[in-house]
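tool_log.txt
---
The assistant was asked to compare two proteins side by side. It first ran the structure predictor on the initial sequence, then on the second. Raw inputs and outputs are pasted verbatim so the downstream comparison step can read them without reformatting.
(1)
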Amino acid sequence: MIRYPQTDDTAEKAVTDMLDDKEYLDTTTGSDTPKEKEQKDQFEKVCFMCRRPESKAGKMIDLPNNIHICTDCMQRSFDTMNNTNINYEELMKNMPNISMIDLNSLQNQIPQRQKVKKKQEQPKEKTAQKVFDIKSIPAPHRIKASLDEYVIGQEYAKKVMSVGVYNHYKRVFADITDDVEIEKSNMLMIGPTGSGKTYMVKTLARLLDVPLAITDATSLTEAGYIGDDIESVVSKLLAAADNDVERAEHGIIFIDEIDKIAKKKNTNQRDVSGEAVQQGMLKLLEGSEVEVPVGANSKNAMVPLATVNTKNILFICGGAFPDLEEIIKERLNKTASIGFQADLKDKYDHDNKILEKVTVDDLKKFGMIPEFLGRMPIIFTLSGLDRDMLVEILKEPKNAILKQYQKLLALDEVKLEFEDGALEAIADMAMEKHTGARALRAILEEYMLDIMYEIPKDDNIGEVIITKDYITHTGGPKILLRGQEPAQIEMK
């Protein structure tokens, strides 16, 4: 016979008795092997009904077949049954083949990517696997030196980022006991497309070995509308940290195309993807506890929820900010006056460094709200890439594109070289596309296709030299056979 509580008092007593009954709580763990038990101990129990982890919902009631129910859901279930006039005894009698129900199908089987790791106290000899602490944070000059190995140019931007990151992690790991509270070093990067904004952040996160989440602001909308809500960026960071909340809370979030959420001008509709998104991001940027789904972007998904504190998460925003140059020029031209000391109206038309003169007022006029800019204390610009910088990007960095192709051909025991004239021609073609360094890869892919296809056919080829004539379609590359002098051949 199955009995159900008839009053709220008896329901509460039933829940309490279940929690106090150790034999009942341990019915599902007795058959586990030591290895299985150790693996289970690494992750939190998740309520089968509300999908909240144990750290959030409290102590769980363990049911057979690895099903866990939190006390809140169990209480709500009892309350629901108390408020209905259903005769459960008659219901069970009239339910045919109830013994055929496979409880294994109801198991709380959660995919690995949706499991939340427990916060465990580790012994002193195995102290937390932090990449660095207050004493081992890389100094700004060391951070910049590491960035120099991968990023060409942008000296000012690299210096600003190095100092900002250094101060941020000093703030995170410092034990501040006085009244002086150090604010977050959130950054706003302004630069044309292809200038290296995303690449610098990726390189920085890799050097520091901290989790990184990259999102596009164009996909963000106010909560309740079609698109990703603002808190989804924290979900991506948690996924990048392998669902380790503590590690995620020391990570970096990069929001690209931030200029796309500027306030819309002359609109009568609700600005759900502009100003509303900026407003929704304020708490995240400043620091707040956010409940985010584990392994999904929507809170409506039947997945566990984890609480992440964004207080120590470094937010870096980047955008091209088109038309910002015109706003800056307009402001600077207002200083022009009539007379001998008047500035020419076209004085700034050909100024390649006009973005360096940006002010907060310019960004406000562009459409960024003051509250958002107030939470971005570090604002800096990246310069556009010129021809010489593009040539250096091709050959100088540790993972330069040319070095990648040379490595690929070296696996076929073929040496690959580029003439200086060929590199300059490639840079000129990239300049015409106006997409920055992104154009270099596309151009090289086009010219290397035939070479990567034809060269492996002949084992006698020992060296390939890419010439300017080959890039300009007036000749072919130089092919050096093993033990022979270079000769020009025409690629098919």
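(2)
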Amino acid sequence: MEIEQKNLREIINYRLEKLEKIRAAGFNPYPYNFDKTHQITELLKKGENGVGEKVKTAGRMVSFRKMGKASFTHIQDENEKIQVYLKNDLLPEKLYDNIVRNLDLGDIIGCSGELFITKTGELSIKADYIMILSKNIRPLPNLKEKEGESFNAFEDKELRYRHRQLDLIANPSVKEIFKKRSRIISSLRKFLDEHNFLEVETPVLQSIYGGASARPFTTHHNTLDQSFYLRIADELYLKRLIIGGFDKVYELAKNFRNEGMDSNHNPEYTSLEYYQAYSDMFDMMDLTENLIQYVALETGEVKFEYNANKIDLNIPFQKRSMFNLLKEYAQEDLSEMDGKELIKFAKSKSLDLEKDMNYGQVLDKIFGEIVEPNLIEPIFVTDYPKAISPLAKEDRDGNPNIVERFELFISGMEFANAFSELNDPIEQRNRLESQAHLRELGDEEAQVVDENFLQAMEAGMPPTGGVGIGVDRLVMLLTQQKSIKDVILFPAMRQEK
């Protein structure tokens, strides 16, 4: 490591010397702008038809071959790369000696010249002018290419996440993932906009957090001299908008949960929540299925393989009860078991239970461990315990222990959570007060009593269906990535020592 650091320092010092030479020759190595006439993609499309045409473009140097008074470099912009031929007698006086000889891989340059075809058949630019736009001081990851394929590139996962800018330069496929993420998010918006949903913005800083069972991040507002929380969900504010008279609303935004991290969880994540008045969970099931299929078609991924599973998003999504699935995969009917019996069953399956878990939490744990890995094709799971669903309406068929809630699973992973939203203000108060009691007993993820929300409910909320979708997970699925860190540009990382 010491040798590597010494070599790095030597390289940086050498490049700083070149920087000073450029400045001493009267050139600004960091100019204000450059007037590009073409993106590199446009030039490549011209092919032989563009030969002789005068063009002006720019990009980062990703290869560099010096041959006396001539040099070849490939410059890369956002999408593509093109070869540039640099020859002493084709450039203005002293430009080759003062600029070209002081260039390095990673420098950003602009050039003008004619398009031509090399002896090897490669479309290139014969430069008649070159301008340095940004001198690279810190060397890029070792980039090599053979037969069009990069190798020995930036491969260390942790370094890639910490230095995403280098990852994007070294691994073009990564850039494609994030371009597709952008298209997915645009498609989500487009679908909801076309279905007359109104996009809204609700507070990220909240004096009372709610809408989900999770631990928040806490901060302090100096002027108000009180604690605030980064939101864990948009739900309670969006419901207040439904109460206020908006029939269809959605928010696509960042949420924050101060919890564990793994391949499916990041403390800062992107969520889509949408609510529709005069609807229930069954209406939202249909809407959500159509939404997922629409986005998949818009972004070109309907049938694919994910985690060694063949996925087809274009088939009708299954609908199954949680208890039926438990009976199928746990090989035992759990619907009649009480809390103690569930705990006994869980322990018989060697499941790790936390202290003082309630009936719903134990059942959810069993389901997560035994059933979820088997849910490969898209499936809506219904009939969740009331104990873990304080914002959902009770089962309309009269079962007092379950609520009208569904979760969408694909390839063993949860993608959406939805309710027939509880709109009885008396029952809602009772449920949240029960949650507050659980907090007093030590459950840090139990929900809190939000008086402003409860008072809003007392004004009257129409029957409403609501859905929350984990956007990062959806991007993982549609780009076939196994870790959430691979679809978040700058994931949370432990600080380097």
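---
observation on (2): Confidence is low (pLDDT under 50) at residues 145-151. The CA atoms of residues 191 and 349 lie 43 Å apart.
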